Amino acid sequence: NPARTAYFFVPVNNLTSFIREAVQRSETAIVVTVSATRGSVPRDAGTRMFVTVNNVFGTIGGGHLEYKAIDIARNMILTSNVRAIHRFVLGATLGQCCGGVMNLTFEAVADDAALIEHRLVSAPDFHLVLFGAGHVGRSVVRILSELSCAITWVDSREEAFPKDMPFNVQCVCTDEPTCEVDAAGAGSYFLVMTHSHALDQTLSERILKRSDFAYFGLIGSVTKRRQFERRLLDRGVSRAQLASMHCPIGVAGIVGKEPAAIAIAVAAEILQRQNEIACATQSVEPGRLRAKASS
Fold first, then answer.
1. 128 C-beta neighbours (distance < 10 Å), count
2. pLDDT tops 90 at residue 255
3. Which are the contacts of 104, defined by CB distance < 8 A and separation ≥ 6?
4. 0.85 surpassed by pTM
């Protein structure tokens, strides 16, 4: 029988938890970075995965490639090796159908400052300002915080925010949430799902009058949209501005009303919008930019 390696995985919810646990245990972590690619590959250059003896955070594409990378990283920890570079031909070497080539860089880090430096190297793909820390808001943060984005999460209720926060999420507890609309940069993404319809309307008006956002989604039904449209027209918002408001939110075809289902639908809608903008900027066909998937 061929030799079989057993892998011990304890995936953590976010990199902040990963760093905290590694520091508490005085563990060395190996940062595995996709340093170069050619052809069809499961993840792009710059993707990172963090590995300790017991934990793994992130993914470089799954499959045999990832198992092999984790094995290399853990052997480096055991042998006190601090840096290595490995080249993988996915088809011939690993039997994966992608068929491309990936170079992986393995670097050992042993303190929280070094891990934090690694996590902050890449700029986020987009900035989301999320108003509302209710059930749907929490589900949205859980999903999108796994991606390369920065999230400003706004609510007036401090107790509504979870204690353990992903590193790319900044919580703002304020009684003046409209100030966060004004503070966001051009090209920001906005999601409004507060506990108050009156506040939703105030925020919607403030966002729509900016006219420089990448995406604006408002939670609610078609009836809510029609009511808001009438009121916002009376307050000087144009029909062209209203046309840019996504309400109801989420991609079509997902009918579930559970917080997680709504969050998945709206996350997909945000990613679609991000892809449209990126394709327009780079002059490629929609859907091609993020068409790579794990083999």
1. 27
2. no
3. 32, 33, 34, 35, 60, 69, 85, 86, 87, 88
4. no
